[in-house]
Write a structure and sequence with these properties.
alpha/beta, 45% helix, two-stranded antiparallel sheet, 8-stranded mixed beta sheet, 373 residues, 16% strand
Length: 373
Amino acid sequence: MRAQASAPAPASKITRADLAAAYMRVDAAYTQRENAKTLPDSLRAQVNRTVDRAALSFFSGQFGAAVGTIDAAAAQLTGAPTLGPTKPTGPRSLNGAPVSAARDEYLARLAVVDSAGPLAQALLSARERAKLLVDVPSPERSAEFLNDPARLSRDLAREVSVLERGRDPYIGLVGDFWRVYRGANNALVPMRIVAPPSANVRKPVGVLLVLHGAGGDENMFVDAYGSGIATKLAAEQRLILVSPKTDLFGVTPEHFDALMVLLRNEFRIDSSRVYLIGHSMGAGAAARLVQARPAQFAAVALLAGGSPITVANAPPSLFVGAELDGIIPAARVEAAAKATPGATYELFRHEGHLLMVGNGVRRAVPWLVSHTR
């Protein structure tokens, strides 16, 4: 029996989890059609316009309308209605006990580990990761509702044990992990870090730093934006992908400095292959970061946003605008590119502000890695 589309729930009942699930549905459907090469320009344009209308509803606080519009776009791609917002589930458990019991055990063990010196950042990450083990995840905090408690608990068992032996469990650690690090002024910056298997060998590895747009968070580039295409392409190029929470990370370039100290402690970083991608708000933050730290990057790509980069010794820059973008019009992106010495500008036809990111990453990564510092 075919599922029936549900009417949009009242805005007060729509959560960040509902919005995230809706966006991931349409992103996955769009990416599937893209990969199968079954996305004609007319449908591409129609879906992009619909999703950007949903973004405008989101920014104006109409969350119920945003979910309904996103699901309408998904239906345009799949030909089938969606179920709409999901119902909350009951408390979670691990091995027959509440999830919080594992959290409390890990935190108690970490409390007696010396938090001074070289283990400070690692202890911070382990504690914040343990705090995600809650019985009922917050529907407003994606780090809680996206994490699998069973996998997280298994990982923490190893991390805590290594810390208890006075060692850093994150040195050379490959895989996909939600982390927190201490940036400038004692700020705690959440991030997703995805290190490919090749990152733990002796050969230095590069870095791909990605900054999401407004309304998103540190999980966007890993779980969405082209079904996480950035992680696949980064791994193919032997790059560690790092996705911090832009609205915190972009406040000061000193957060970047602290991040690079952390990465260089955990991996052998190839300083000639540090790349930067930003989307929308993240593109603006990326441009400001390059202005402040031009010598730190081999190249930068600004998707559907950004500002002129005029500092001396700036790396090569790629600006990409979207023809149908009603949030940051392509003309603004092109103007920023024209004001940036030596910049490359490209226009994506039939695409809008949000769904252009997947193809933007597909275009940006090969372009970025063609440059070294």
